[in-house]
Amino acid sequence: MSVPHPAAPALAVGLISSAALGYEILLLRIFAIVHWHHLVATAISLALLGYGASGTFIAVFRVALERHFAAVFVANAMLFGISALACTALAQQLPFDPQALTWEPLQLLYLAATFLLLSVPFFAAANCVGLALSAYRDEIPRLYGYDLLGAGLGALLLLVALSWLHPADILYLIFALGLLVGAAAARHQRWYPWSAAAVAITLAFTAWMFARPAIHPADYKDLTRSLWVVGAETETVSHGIAGLVTVVRNDVVPVRLAPGLSLNTTTLPPRQRAVFVDGELAGAIDDHEHTATSALYLGDLTSALPYHLLQSPQVAVLNAGIGTSVQQALHLGAASVTAIEPNAQLPALLCKPNPGDNLGVCDTRRVRWHFQASRAFLAGTGAPFDLIAIDIHSDPTGLDALNISFDLTTGAMTDYLRHLAPGGLLSINGNTRVPPRLLLRAIDTARVALLQAGSNDPATHIAAIRGWQRFNLLVSRSPLTGTQLAGIRTFCRKHGFDLVWLPDIQAGEVNQYQRLSEPLFHRGAAAILGGGSQRSATGGSLRLQAVSDDRPYPYRFTSWREAWMAVRSSDPERIASIDSGLLVGVATLLFTVLIGASLILIPLRWLPTPTTSHPTANKGRKAPAFAYFAMLGLAFLFIEIAWIQRLQLFLGHPVYATTAVLAAFLVFAGLGSLWSQRQMHTRTTQLLHLAALSILLFSLVYMLFLPSLLARMAAWPLLSRACVVLLLLAPMAFAMGMPFPLGLRALGHTSAGLVPWAWGINGCTSVIAAAAAPLLAMEAGFSGLTAIAVIAYLLVPWLNPGFHKRTGDHGT
User: Fold this and answer.
1) d(CA 167, CA 29)
2) Is 798 in contact with 628 (CB distance < 8 Å)?
3) Taking CA atoms, which of 123, 265, 279, 749 is between 20 and 30 Å from 148?
C-alpha cells in the first residue's frame, strides 16, 4: 500500500465530521423554518446520500485520488464549507411546495432537486473521510473512531450554538469551519499551506461581507402569506432551540384570531399581533391588556364548553403557547391555572422580567408557568386538576402524517385521566376536516384509555361537539351526569354548535347547525363508541384507531389500501385526499432506492477483476462485501432513528432527541472502533459475535425495562435526562462501533480495491434505511424497527467478506 504521508490526518477527519454532523442537525432547523419540522429522517437521508455518492466516486477514481491525496482532501474540505453555504441558498430558491404533491407531479422533481443540492456538502465531507480510510487502510479503526468522535462533538456543539445564535449565523460558522479544516489539512500534508490559508481567509471575508446567508420560509407558509398583506410588518424576531419566533403587526388589516368562534357571537376579538414559530401561526397577542369586555369572545369558543360545567376549576393548560387558553381560563372563572409550554420564548413575549409588572396570563398569583413538555410535567406532579385542556392540530393536507407526537397516544390519554380530580374533565380541542379524522381518532384513543383504566362503558364518559372549524372533546373518569349533559345541550343551542356524541344522544339532535349532507361526525363516533370499529366509521378508507407510544403517528390517517386505490384510480379528488406527508415519505424512499442502487452498481465496471497477475483480486468477495456492509448500513440507521424518535417523549423536543442520540451513538461507537484497533490478537469473528450478542442483550433489556425507567425520570432537568440518554445508550453504541471498521480493515487486507465501494454501500443502504424507517415504524413500531436491526446485526458475523481465509484472521 502506498501511503501519501507518514501520518494520517486523523484530526482533520474528526473536524470535518464534526462540521458535517453539525450541518446535518442544522438542516432540521432549516427545514423547520423553510418547509416543515418533521424531517429527522429526511435530513439524515440527505447526509447519507452524499456519503453513498462519495463511496462510488472514490471507488471509480481511487488510484488518481490517492496519488493526489493532499490536494483532493484540502479541496473537498473547502468545498464542504462553500457548498454548505451556497447549496442551502440555492435550495431555498426552488419552488418546492409539499402541499401540492397530490396534484402537481412537478413537485417530485423539485423534491429530487432539493435532495441533490443539499447532499453536495455531505458528498465533499464524505470524500475527505472516505479517501483517508482508503489511503490509510491499516489505520481504519483509528480514523473511523476520530470520524465518529468528531461527529458526536459536532452534535453537542451545534446544540449549544442553537441556544445563542440564529441558524443563518451558524451556517456561516460551518462554512468557515470547512475552510479552516482545509487550511489545517494543507499544513498537515505540507501541500501549499500558505496559499491554502490565504484562499480560506479570502473566501471567509468575502462571504461575511457580501454573501451572508439568509433563511426564509417558503411562499406557502403562514408567515410569508401574512407579510404579503398590505400593512404587515415584522415587529420582533427571537431565536432558540425550540424555534424561530416572529411577531407580525398590521395596523391596516389587523389580525383577529379566534379559532372555534361561534357564528352566533355578538363580540369580536380585539386587534391582535400574529405570532409565528418557524413560519407557522402559533397564536396572537392582543394589542392591549384584556378587559371584561374585550375578552367576552373567549366564552363563545368551542373550547369554552368545560367552563360552563365546572365551578372555579383548578386548570392545567397543556401546550399553552402564547397563552390564549390561559386567558380563556382566567376569564371564565378558573381559580388557578397551571400553564405548561416547552417553548419559553412564547410566554416571554408577554411576561415582563419584574413579576410585579405582570397581569393576566403572567400574574404569578393565579398562573404558574412551567417550561417543559406536557407529559414530563405530569410525570413530575401528583397534583390533581379539575380540568386539563389541550389543543391538538392536524395539517389540512396531511403534511404532518410522518410527524411524531406523544400528545395523542393511549399512553398520553392515560396520563391525562390519571391527573384528573374526582369529577374532573379532560378537554381536547382540535380542527375539523371532512371526512372526520382527528376527532374520531381522539375518541377512539379516549375509549381505549378508559377501558385500560377499568371502565365498563367508555361511551358514558365521553361528549363531543363541533363548530364549523373546531371540535371539543370532553372525557371524564366517571360517567357524565345528567346535569352535565343538560349543560352541554344548552351550550350548543346558545352558540349554534353541533352535538357529535352524548351518551344519550338522539338521532334528531345531530347535524343541526353546520349541516353536512350526512351526519358523518356522529356516525363515526357512534361506530366507535357503540360497539363498532374505526373501520366501520369510515368504510375502511381511513386509519383512525388509537396509536401507542411505540407508534406515535396520530396524524397519519390514509391507509395503504386507500392510497394505492386512489393512485390506481387516477382520480384527482381521490388522490388529493391522500395525506401529502405520506406521499413525501414514499417519494423519498423511491428516490433513495433508485439513487442508492445506481451508486452501488455504477462502480462495478471499474472495480479490479481477477487477472493472470492477480488471480485472486476481489474474487468471490463482491457479494459477501455487499451483504455485509448493506446489513450494517440498514441496522445502524434503524436503531439510531428508532431511538431518536422514541426519546423525543423523554427529552421533549426533536432537536434535543436528535442531538443526544447522535452524540451518544457516534461518540461511543467511535470509542468502540478505537478499542477494536487495539485488539490485534483477538480473532475478528470473535469480536463480531461479541458485538452482535451485546447489541441483542442491550436491545432486549431496553425494550423490556426502559419505558418504565424513563417514565420515572421524565420530570428530571433536561441536562440530567440528556446524561441519562448518553449513559444508557453508551454500551450498545460501543458494540455497534466495531463491525464496520473491522470489516473494512479485513477487506483492505484481502481486496483493497473494494474498500471505497464498501464505504459507498454502507452509505447508500443507510440512505434507504433513513427513508424507510418512519414508514416501517408506522406499521411495526419502534420495537419492530429495533428487532429488524438486531436480526441484521446477528447475521453480520456470518457475512463477513474478508474472514473466510484463516491466514491473518487474528489481525483483522
Assistant:
1) 7
2) no
3) 749
In order of start, what are the domains of the chain with their CATH numbers? 10-216+579-811 (1.20.1250), 222-286 (no CATH), 301-371+382-391 (3.40.50.150)
> Rounded CA gap, 742 and 356, in Å?
64
- Residues in the chain, overall count: 812
Instruction: Give, as one character, the DSSP assignment of residue 260.
Output: T
**176/19 Cα distance (integer angstroms):** 10
Question: For residues 385 and 368, what is the distance between their CA atoms, to the nearest angstrom?
Answer: 14
Higher pLDDT, 268 or 415: 415
DSSP 340: E
Main-chain dihedrals φ then ψ at residue 47, nearest 5 degrees:
-60, -45
Q: Which of 403, 404, 443, 406 is nearest to 426 (CA)?
A: 443
- pTM, rounded to two decimals: 0.85
What is the distance between the alpha carbons of residues 397 and 408, in angstroms, rounded to a whole number?
19
Residues 115-138, mean pLDDT to the nearest whole number: 86
CB within 8 A of 164, min separation 6: which ones?
Answer: none
**Contact between 528 and 537 (Cβ < 8 Å):** yes
Determine which of 417-431, 435-449, 564-578, 718-732 has the lowest per-residue pLDDT on average. 564-578
Nearest to 87 by CA among 117, 112, 109: 117
Q: What are the Cα distances from residue 430, in Å, to 272, 281, 393, 528, 553? A: 22, 15, 5, 19, 16
Check whether 696 has a pLDDT greater than 60. Answer: yes
Residue 547: CB atoms within 10 Å: 26
Which residues make Cβ contacts (< 8 Å) with residue 347, sequence separation at least 6?
320, 322, 323, 339, 341, 361, 362, 369, 371
Residue 525's pLDDT is what?
92
Within 8 A by CB and 6+ apart from 230, the residues are: 252, 253
Rounded to 10 deg, the angle between the 654-678 and 622-646 helix axes is 140
How far apart are the C-alpha atoms of 634 and 592, rounded to whole Å? 13
Residue with cell 411505540: 550
Averaged pLDDT score across all residues of the chain: 82
Residue 497 pLDDT class (50, 70, 90 cuts): very high
CB 705 within 8 A of CB 764: no
d(CA 695, CA 728): 13
Place of cell 373501520: 535
**Which residues lie across from 566 on neighbouring strands?**
none
Cβ(101)–Cβ(40) below 8 Å: no
Joined together, the cell numbers standing for residue 584 give 413525501
Q: Which DSSP letter does residue 404 get?
A: -
3-class secondary structure, 318: strand
| 103, 128, 306, 680 from 115: Cα distances, Å | 21, 21, 47, 41
Q: Which three cell numbers stand for residue 519?
A: 351526519
| Of 34, 39, 32, 215, nearest in space to 584 by CA | 39
Q: Are 463 and 450 in contact (CB under 8 A)?
A: no
Distance CA 524, CA 586 (A): 29
- For residue 526, the 8-state DSSP code is H
**What percent of the chain has a predicted confidence (pLDDT) above 70?**
86
Read off the amino acid at residue 190.
R
In tens, the pLDDT along 640-649 reads 889 988 888 8
Q: Give the whole-angstrom CA distance, residue 324 versus residue 249.
A: 17
618: alpha, beta or left? (left if phi > 0; alpha if psi -120 to 50): left
User: Are 233 and 250 within 8 A, CB to CB?
Assistant: yes
Give strand pairing partners of 255. 272
Please compute, for residue 320, the number of CA atoms within 13 A of its CA located in the half-sphere on the CB side: 31
Residues 6 or more apart whose Cβ sits within 8 Å of residue 595? 49, 52, 53, 764, 767
Residue pair 559/542 in contact (Cβ under 8 Å)? The answer is: yes
**How far is the C-alpha of 688 from the C-alpha of 743, rounded, in Å?**
9
Under 8 Å between Cβ of 433 and 394: yes
Hey, what amino acid is at 189?
Q
